[in-house]
Design a protein that fits this description.
The protein has about 280 residues and is of the alpha+beta class. It has 13 helices and four strands. The chain has three domains: about 35 residues, no CATH class; about 140 residues, 3-Layer(aba) Sandwich (NADH Oxidase); about 80 residues, no CATH class. Bound molecules: flavin mononucleotide (FMN).
Amino acid sequence: MTDAGSKLAAALAERFGEDFAIPQTAGLDALARMADHRSMRAYAPREVPASLIRTLCAVALSAPTKSDLQQADIVIVSDPTVRAKLDEWCGENPWVKAAPAFLVFCANNRRQLRIHERHAIAFANDHLDAFFNAAVDAGIVLSAFVTAAEAAGLGTCPISAIRNRAADVSALLGLPDRVFPVAGLCVGWPAHPGGISPRLPTGLRVHENRYDEGDLDAAIAAYDERRNRTRPFAKQRDPARFGTSPAYGWSQDKARQYAAPERADFGAYIRKIGFRLD
Ligand SMILES: Cc1cc2nc3c(=O)[nH]c(=O)nc-3n(C[C@H](O)[C@H](O)[C@H](O)COP(=O)(O)O)c2cc1C
């Protein structure tokens, strides 16, 4: 196998705990790099050139977009005063403050409305679909930016915590109605190599012709066990409420996470900026 093929196989084996037969194909270097993805939360004290950020934005905005509607925007936060506010609001994620660069990926349905006004054609597709399409586009652009940044040697960490105060973030960034933040993104040169985060087995998530989850509980138990062996959780969530568990794993962590509502005011904010969600 080629060097890139071996790297790809090793990254996928570590990620999924499975062996993959790597085919001979073009682009193995790029695939190996994507499979090796890792969120990075510690950065070297080195600036990221503005020209590199702008170039990565353009590359990310080259991603596919629903119906060519182009409903994702990126806000580069370079003003230290604005940045300080976001750092403060994301205080539970100290890597936001530590990141040399910070971006906010937004969904933008406003332009579509303007287009309707411009042509005096009523906007009738005004229901959940409008919100959904714009949010999906923003997620796709975020993902493309992460891949592009990693190809350039940068490390990134998406930040949904900015939506904890979506209305405040909107006001701070001057987002008009029908434009909303989907996620922030820390960007910087990695301070250390980081590590591959294991994922659920592909058998659970890749289906052929028909959805088939097999023995879901057994698969989750096996994943919890593999993850505990390879990348155990450093901390248990909310021990005051749930105590500590000797077999704390991914599924328990996720169950504890959503035992409390997060961003329960987000729907009200989205409606307030003009979306209809029915
Ligand atoms: C939309 C989105 C929002 C995220 N928000 C946060 C966040 O607020 N804080 C954080 O530390 N990581 C955040 N992450 C990073 C995830 O925790 C990370 O992707 C996940 O743990 C898997 O790790 P990996 O990216 O290294 O494979 C977010 C990721 C995505 C895609």
